[in-house]
Amino acid sequence: MADTVRAAFASELFLPLGKVTGDTPLTELAGLDSVKLLRVVTALETQYAITLDDEQLYGLGTVGDVAVLVEKALETPAVSGG
């Protein structure tokens, strides 16, 4: 999962994959702003058919934190509103 999240950030920001590690602070990713963060999140949500909580996203500090949030979303069963 961590590699997929790293690759999503690297792709969106046109960075070499080696420049994006799990320990990389989001604030230190060159070119990352709120719009690009949401693009990465949307790509991950689409890829894994999950929904990430926007409130939780803004409390994240590193790329690894994003990966953990995705993993937790995958473990949580989807709630249908029927």
How would you characterize this protein structure?
With 82 residues, this protein is an all-alpha fold. The chain is built from four helices and no strands. The longest helix has 15 residues.
**Sheet with most strands:** none
β-strand percent reads: under 5%
Oligomeric category:
single chain
Give me the count of strands: 0
Share of helix among residues? 40-55%
Count, helices: 4
Separation of the first and last Cα atoms: 31 Å
| Average pLDDT reading | 90
Calculate Rg over CA atoms.
12 Å
Low-confidence stretches: none
Helix and strand content put the structural class at mainly alpha
Helix/strand order? HHHH
Task: Name the overall outline.
Answer: globular
Furnish the topology, listing elements before pairings.
Layout: H1 2-13, H2 34-48, H3 54-57, H4 63-75
Structure summarized in a few sentences:
The protein is mainly α.
Features:
82 residues, mainly alpha, 54% helix, globular
